[in-house]
Amino acid sequence: NVEPRSVAVFPWHSLVPFLAPSQPD
Amino acid sequence: PPITSSHLPSHFMKGAIIQLATGELKRVEDLQTQDFVRSAEVSGGLKIDSSTVVDIQESQWPGFVLLHFVVGEQQSKVSIEVPPEHPFFVYGQGWSSCSPGRTAQLFSLPCHRLQVGDVCISISLQSLN
């Protein structure tokens, strides 16, 4: 028996850092 | 606190499947600058910023590096601490890290060396006005 394998799919935005100033000017 | 090495997500692993905002699926190593730009265009609420590396230092946390960026049109200063193998996507160049050797070892992801002056892709919330 071959069990079906799930493939993880990651959203594009998880690859890039969220960089925002903590205190906007 | 810095992003911990043991929690570096597997989406940086070579072969990982990434879904763009257009619905298209690509392997992480095949992503190009335009993929991020287009994804930001079609996704609501997020925008791509250009984040220039202005300094790379050793962190006070052993095994981490402290990266200083100036971000976006506002040239806001933002610092983050990451493991040296953490990949960043550099405009026109692709994946880059402070330790390409470790990135290759841990993720099999080919990387350039991240340097001061590199312009990385980052995201922030789109302004409501």
Describe this entry's structure for a reader.
The complex is a heterodimer of chains A (25) and B (129). Chain A has 25 residues and is an all-beta fold. Chain A has no helices and 1 strand. Chain A is rod-shaped, with a radius of gyration of 18 Å. Chain B is mainly beta and 129 residues long. Chain B has 2 helices and 9 strands; from the N terminus they run ββαβββββαββ. Chain B has a 4-stranded antiparallel sheet with strand order 5-4-3-9. Chain B is globular, with a radius of gyration of 15 Å. The A-B interface holds A 7-21, 24-25 and B 9-12, 16-21, 25, 28, 31, 35-36, 39, 43, 46, 48-49, 51, 69, 71, 74, 76-78, 80, 88-89, 120-125.
Protein traits:
heterodimer; A: 25 residues; mainly beta; rod-shaped; B: mainly beta; 9 strands
The helix/strand class of chain A is mainly beta
The side-by-side strand order for the widest beta sheet of chain B comes to: 5-4-3-9
Largest interface pair? A-B, 17 and 36 residues
Q: Would you tell me the overall average pLDDT of chain A?
A: 78
Radius of gyration of chain A over alpha carbons?
Answer: 18 Å
Topology:
The complex is a heterodimer of chains A (25) and B (129).
Chain A: E1 9-11
Chain B: E1 17-19, E2 25-27, H1 33-42, E3 46-58, E4 65-71, E5 76-82, E6 88-90, E7 94-97, H2 100-107, E8 112-113, E9 119-125
Parallel strand pairs in B: 7-8
Antiparallel strand pairs in B: 1-2, 3-4, 3-9, 4-5, 6-7
Provide a quick synopsis of the model.
Helix content of chain A is 0%, strand content 12%.
